[in-house]
């Protein structure tokens, strides 16, 4: 046994030789004395522990071998007395037997209010000692978490059981180690615990008040936000903490009291938002302004005339103040706070003083030749300073511009390193989720993407000549393009394809994405919008660089390839608009030489861009067809995209003059008739103005009047079919231009049938469908006008039957016109599929006729919940994706038709 003394060896021998629990229990009194001796080293304690055996100690703890002449508390006390001696040794504190019986210790401390312990509170105290020793080690912390120690310790403190501070200390240690994971998905223990501590914090007038502030900070910092936030408004702790902090920070206090109060304020603001500071009904701004001033002053006190090392010594406090300032700045930028001029001046002065101190320290770091060798923790503190500074710069402040320009290269260097580390971490996490081995060596720098945080400030900075020159000289656009690709990989989410055999079956609800995934997607959308704004500013203000740079050509191709993927996802509307307009600006700047007419990606991009511009306004929503109104789907975000829309329209005009084939493509591409009509109207106005000298405003008004008249009455049988449009033009043009009515009518008819013509891909679709389906065409409108359209476009050869409502007593949505088509095709309605672009006629009529299914191709987004289609597609060429497996289905039923 080596280093074990003779007395301990003798004791071990007695323990092993014991024939009964009574003999073994007697020997424990010898163990108690020996284990506290100087010669009882770690090795001796381990051997003693194993000689006793935890099973025997557990018997004593649970009272299963209690004798009539000896109360159970005696056995418990002896066992715990021995265990507290053993627990001080790390090897024994984490011994499997010790960890396996953590629930026994928890049961003792959780029932400390029982009558059993009234006369012997030392038992509870010793059980806490064992738990505290176990909680010092990672294996012990894990064991405590696994048996629900968080919930139990929360209940102990909430119910004011004996020795609640010990329970609280263990709990804080656990949540600080495991963070949100420690709390699980049930917010009740957290709320109950924090309600009680916050009440104690608000009412305690001793120095313990500030110990509680530190504990509250740790608990708020570690909580599971997803579960805690939804019910926090119904709890008492937000108001209790507000009251206590208000009282503390409006009193004369010292540094030891102010520091924990400011840290707690920062943590609760980080959790609940800056709005929490406006809890005073009489003067809601008072505490907000006080807190902002105190944090600005604290930053100056900690940073002014200090070295970086001195500033870093109080990094936790300074970072907490940074958080308050950043939240305050972002809130004030939202224009929700009505400040008087005097208050505005006071806030600006405070902030400028704080940021002067921040810039001063950052300048010292940037000038240090060893700046690249800083430990990770110090780099993170530097990142925190840059983060709060760029929040200030994002508000277009002109303060300290020269100092900021000098810092930009250092800030870019730091941001680029941070971005690459963060991207590596995200990639590693993705690989882990896909089952690949994960490199766990991720630095603290990988926890934050500083470049992402710089983007809003950079939008403003690149407008300034000096900052833009610095950005371009450092080739920062290359990193920004990398960031664009990275954030696109997060934003772009493709749903798995539905097997053909499942397409006509009842739809199963798709699994929802994880909240963190949705949050990451939202943040990356915002990042891409900022990146678009930066690239737009560079494109407009540095045209020569853009024209000569391969990077910007690569960026344009990125937009060509990816913009169409954003369609029909409402959350992507703002991003869709920014990418579309950035592409137009690049297209205009780089000219026709970089754009090939036969590049399909360019055609898809142009289609998506014009789709964005077209969908913003609708004619049908107004009683006046010449007046456009913002469509419902754009209204929510119109404040963000109104200026963008006008820039897009202006830029598209410029693009059409530089790349003329795009306007031809726009007309020939076979999009929804409304889009083509709008383009044709623009073209007509150009013809009237350029070829016939009609003033632009008169040409615009005449074109609008003609389209309104034609839509109201597309045919009049008293005129020849080709003469009716000319008659309408004569009525819509001013008297001195009526002589051109016949010519402009011919131009209009030419454009009308040109933009309505079927494209090659649609013709191919129809020819392919006819191999497996019967096809029918149903159209509403006057007989002559509609048949003229059908004949001019050569549609009859693609359809097995054609119905025009003008020839019949019904029109869509009357079910009879659909049933008539089924009759002519010799199919039953339940074997027929309706494909249309209008909910109120096509889809509603198909539903009323009890057709097999309805497929909607929306001209505009529609929020209506009535008569919802079975399927929605964005282009008719996507129709095969939602049709049944045609050869198989055709064999299983007599006939199937698509109308």
Automatic annotation (TrEMBL):
GO terms for cellular component: dendrite. InterPro entries: ARM-type_fold, HAD-like_sf, HAD-SF_hydro_IA, HAD_sf, Neurochondrin. GO terms for biological process: neuron projection development; regulation of neuronal synaptic plasticity. SUPFAM superfamilies: ARM repeat, HAD-like. NCBIfam families: HAD-SF-IA-v1. Belongs to the neurochondrin family. This is Neurochondrin homolog.
